[in-house]
Write a structure and sequence with these properties.
Layout: H1 8-57, H2 59-63, H3 67-75, E1 83-90, E2 95-99, E3 116-120, E4 123-132, E5 135-145, H4 147-199, H5 213-222, H6 227-309, H7 316-344, E6 353-356, H8 357-372, E7 377-381, E8 386-389, H9 391-408, E9 415-424, E10 427-434, H10 466-476, E11 480-485, E12 491-496
Helix pairs in contact: 1-4, 5-6, 6-7, 8-9, 9-10
Length: 503
């Protein structure tokens, strides 16, 4: 924009209007963009979390092509108000079950789409794989209604537009009023200088409008003999302007604080929304676990009554069956607890701080010794590094690995469990080694899967969830875990965590 030939009154008005409009537009654009990006990310993470939970619970339904079980699992989504459609598809693309039940099948995708999330219009669609043993059993589809979210952003845009229009109108009238105090003296000086130049009349004096810089310039132009006096007046006026500038700076600082407070309030509001979503997920998990525990408690209780009633009137073989029923119910209860612990890994906020691993190992061994009874175990604990991480999760790693080492070295008369550090591919790593029964390495890829066990339950107790929990914790810390073993010669678990160091 060329303003060289534009009158100074219009220049001042134009500059003030452009500056205020650009600042308001940039502020509104940045704020709305930030809100859109943040909320879309939160919506995707929430939808993927829900899909992961539903997919994990749908493996049995897809494995046995059980439409009733699939429908019951999908019906749990009533607690999620944002989910409007959900469906399960078998491996060959056939729809097994859908939610809500009353909607016709035509309302759902006829076949599973590409795995991932996509925003379409006022909805978020998620296609999530249902897997078991790294084998895809089918696909889960979820659709979230985003109309309330978009309605809120339209409200934000409308408010921003009204603020922009109102601010532009105010800026225009303010600039039109304020520019007179600047342009009028300049125009007066220009007219006076022009008259002196044309008429050669040096008695002409410009009218003085004030004691600002233009006033000083007018005084110098009118009377050079009073220049020193005008300089002192200018210094006094500059002092007053400095106070005004300081006052204006404090006012601007207060406005910035108000803006920061408003942004803080919005952040707290978003945090509260995320907290509410997490509470809903926690309630959903609790509901599922309660529904699983209740029948197990009933089975165990009734079996205990049968056992007590059958002390003398039932053959020993039948009493053994009753005992096996109770053991199965109790093992199932432990399995539910382990699965819940696995689902909670990473859901809470991680607290990272330096952790001395030797102190953690000593604490875990002290707890395990209380359960060993008269059994003798030789512990070989070398100096271990310090690692930044979540203390509770890091301890859970060693609880599972050391417990496994103790359990699978049980057949050895002289059980030896060793913990130390090593270098692996240029990284500092920690290992847990035992001289137990070991296993065949061709099954190592299944070791960290949920419910995968390489030994019979009659030989070694367990639920098959512990190592999956360990792997998830290490992955949450951006580390990796691997194992080396040989049948009859024990196993060694190695893992790395970023930031390990020796003091």
């Amino acid at each position: 924009m060329n303003l060289n030939n534009v009158p100074i009154k219009r220049k001042l008005t134009t500059v003030i209007m452009l500056t205020s409009s650009v600042v308001l537009l940039l502020t509104a654009a940045v704020f709305i963009s930030y809100e859109v990006i943040t909320l879309r990310g939160n919506l995707v993470r929430n939808a993927q979390t829900i899909a992961q939970i539903i997919a994990a619970n749908s493996t049995v339904a897809l494995s046995f092509d059980d439409e009733k079980t699939g429908t019951e699992i999908l019906s749990k989504l009533r607690a999620e108000r944002s989910i409007v459609l959900a469906s399960l598809y078998t491996r060959d693309g056939r729809m097994l079950a859908h939610f809500p039940n009353g909607d016709p099948p035509s309302a759902f995708p006829p076949s599973p789409g590409k795995i991932g999330t996509v925003f379409e219009g006022a909805s978020l669609k998620v296609f999530f794989p249902v897997q078991e043993d790294n084998k895809q059993l089918g696909t889960l589809f979820l659709e979230s209604d985003l109309a309330p979210v978009y309605q809120r952003f339209r409200l934000y845009a409308g408010l921003a537009f009204l603020v922009l229009i109102g601010s532009s109108v105010v800026a225009y009238f303010l600039s039109h009023w304020l520019q007179k105090s600047i342009s009028q003296p300049i125009l007066e000086l220009a007219e006076t200088a022009k008259a002196v130049s044309i008429n050669k009349d040096y008695l002409v004096r410009a009218q003085k409008y004030g004691n600002d810089e233009l006033g000083v310039f007018t005084d110098a132009f009118n009377d050079m003999l009073t220049q020193i006096h005008q300089r002192d007046a200018a210094l006094r006026e500059n002092e007053g302007r400095l106070k005004e500038a300081l006052l204006a700076s404090k006012t601007a600082e207060g406005e910035i604080r108000n803006l920061n407070a408003e942004l803080e309030a919005r952040v707290q509001s978003r945090t509260a929304e995320l907290g509410a979503i997490n509470k809903e997920l926690e309630a959903f998990t609790y509901s599922v676990s309660h529904d699983l525990r209740a029948p197990l408690r009933h089975i165990d209780a009734f079996a205990q009554i049968l056992d007590e009633e059958a002390q003398t009137s039932v053959p020993p073989e039948l009493r053994q069956y009753i005992t096996k029923i109770r053991q199965g119910a109790q093992n199932m209860g432990h399995l539910v607890d382990d699965l819940l612990n696995l689902s909670r890994v990473g859901r809470g906020e991680m607290v990272r701080k330096p952790i001395k691993l030797n102190a953690v190992v000593d604490e875990v061994i002290a707890e395990i010794r209380m359960e060993l009874g008269k059994r003798e175990v030789e512990w070989r604990i070398a100096p271990l590094p310090t690692v930044p991480g979540d203390p509770g999760l890091i301890k859970q790693i060693f609880v599972n690995l050391i417990s496994n080492a103790v359990k699978y070295s049980r057949p050895r008369a002289n059980a030896v469990i060793e913990l130390g550090q090593e270098m692996a591919d240029g990284q500092l790593a920690v290992f847990v080694r035992d001289n137990g029964v070991g296993f065949n390495m061709k099954y190592a890829d299944k070791l960290f899967g949920v419910f995968h066990r390489l030994h019979r339950a009659e030989e070694f107790e367990g639920t098959g969830v512990g190592l999956a929990t360990v792997q998830r914790i290490i992955q949450l810390h951006q580390g990796r875990i691997w194992v080396e073993a040989e049948v009859g010669k024990g196993a060694t678990f190695h893992f790395t965590l970023p930031g390990m160091y020796n003091e």
